Amino acid sequence: MKRLSSRFPHDKLWMAILLGIAFLSLFPLLGSAPLFDEDEGFYAEASREMLENGDYLTAHFNGAPQYDKPILIYWLQTLSFRIFGLNEFAARFPSALATFLWMLAIFGFTRRHLGLRCGALSALFFISAVQITITGKAAIVDSALNLFMTLCLFHFYEYTQNKKKLHIYTAAFYTGLAFLAKGPVAIVIPFGVSLIYCLMQKEFRLWLKMVFNLPAISIFALIALPWYVLEYLNQGTIFIQDFFLKHNLERYSRAFEDHSGSLFYYIPVIIVGTLPHCGLLFPLIRRAGLLWKQEVYRFCFIWVGFVLILFSFGGTKLPHYILSAFPPLFILYGGAYERLERLRSYLAPAVIFLIFFLIFPMALPLAIPYVQDDFAACVMVSGQSLFGADYTIFCGLLAVAVALLFFIRQSGSLKPAVVVSVAYLLLINLALMPRIGTLMQSPVREAALIAGRLPEQAVMWGHSLPSFIFYSRKFVALRTPSPGDVLITKKTKLSEVGSPHEILYEKNCIVLVRILNDPPP
User: Fold this and answer.
1) Cα–Cα distance between 158 and 152 in angstroms, integer?
2) What is the pairing mode between strands 501-507 and 510-515?
3) Burial 90-126, CB ≥16 within 10 A → b, else e
4) Helix (H) or strand (E) segment spanning residue 460
5) Of 440, 457, 485, which residue sits at a domain end?
6) How far apart are CA 296 and CA 310, in angstroms?
């Protein structure tokens, strides 16, 4: 099998390619789509309220204190709002920057331990994966959390290799930031991965020396604990009960808000989430024994396995929980790609899913009669016009470009990895997300701007739309509407209102209505 070394670009050239692809994927279109509900709208509004009320200790949403997440994401978004203004770009900028740094961390670590080839491939696969492309620049906490956890585990591994205490201290520093971003999971994952790895390596004493290092513990405590202590002193036991017991222990032990799934829930999530590179999953499994012999790959296998088992047994399951397994998984993907004998196993899933994205809108009219949810069916009908000939031609060209790669016979060629990555970045950033944003969230933003200029009390009922509060710049009442209210809801819920109403705005099955006392003349 031919290796990549003879064809690999110069170090600086490859860095320029990586940085260019990452920058174009993350930043130019960052503010092009409205904030998505529920998570983006929630975080952005809570940060807006923090900026407005000047309370930088406790996050508030719709005027009420919130305890489900620690404070770091709100601080980052508030700072971004101060710099860029109250807009979508500012809300998403901290996540996009964290994702950019996350990619650089993966590249740097992998390059040091596996060489430039694997480092570049791993970083490219990471930044172009569907789940990273979508959530990596969303106004949520996960990018910052996983950046810090990844750096923590990278420095732990570095310590096992060279025994320099500086790596213990930097690992503790990043763990503290991760704990300030999400809470206990920031300790559980590094703790579990490092323990299992050290046991496998028969270095349990080394693990004890790292975990019970007093300066490292002090660094962690100085970073992570002051906010928790101050929040407890300010809010009392409700903070402990709501954050630690409800949103951590209970969320793991049982399903919250119907977010449940089987033990195999994350298998399809990994397949779809690592598109267009999921074709490397089966070659990776076939070569697992060979890769396991190399120490850094063994560390990556343990990391992926621990995260997968941890969240598979959790009661609440959400796709973004598995993101903490993506850095080691893409490092393993890089190793699998280097050892591919034929490109077809890598290319086939990328082509198949491109064809799926091409024909899916065409199949919508056939599927709509079988959709049980009236609102979902209404939205699907409204969205058909967005996926016209321009979308079909664009996706068709991408599918043809990737399919032509089947004629490249060099197993180690970089062209397939680069072309496939860029094709999916174009698909997600230029074809899918702008249309989905226009369909799902533009009506909410437009309705909110109207409601913000009205004197009446806004009421949200039958639909949770946190971004409506952000865009209207006004608190809403979460209750059954009464005469005199301005109501934001689904069009399919209007029949349940029970009072005469006047439609102020309607688009894509989202309606803004004024509840009347008497029927209009």
Assistant:
1) 10
2) antiparallel
3) bbbbbbbbbbbbbbbbbbebbbebbebbbbbbbbbbb
4) strand 458-460
5) 440
6) 21
Does residue 296 lie in a domain region? no
The per-residue pLDDT for 255 is 65
User: What is the CA angle 417-419-421, rounded to 5?
Assistant: 65
Q: In this structure, are strands 60-61 and 64-65 parallel, antiparallel, or unpaired? A: antiparallel
Residue 491 belongs to some domain of the structure: yes
Q: Which amino acid is at 183?
A: G
Mean pLDDT per 10-residue run, the chain (521 residues)? 48 82 92 92 97 95 92 97 97 97 96 92 96 94 97 97 94 97 94 96 94 95 96 92 79 69 91 95 94 96 97 89 96 93 89 93 84 84 88 94 82 80 95 93 94 90 91 92 90 82 91 79 54
Q: Domain boundary residue among 401, 420, 440?
A: 440
Spatial separation of the C-alpha atoms in residues 103 and 385, rounded to whole Å: 36
Give a yes or no: residue 352 inside a domain: yes
In a domain, 285, yes or no: no
Q: What's the pLDDT at 81?
A: 98
Q: CA-based angle 411:415:417, to the nearest 5?
A: 85
Please name the residues in contact with 70: beta carbons below 8 A apart, sequence gap of 6 or more: 179, 180, 181, 182, 183, 227, 228, 243
User: Can you tell me the distance from the alpha carbon of 254 to that of 248, in angstroms, rounded to the nearest whole number?
Assistant: 10
Examine the domain organization and report whether 149 and 202 are in the same domain: yes
Q: Name the helix (H) or strand (E) containing 296.
A: helix 295-312
The per-residue pLDDT for 5 is 44
Q: How far apart are CA 152 and CA 171, in angstroms?
A: 4
- pLDDT of 521 reads 54
- Does one domain contain both 506 and 397? no
Residues 517/491, Cβ–Cβ less than 8 Å: no
pTM of the model: 0.93
Residues 420 and 382 in one domain: yes
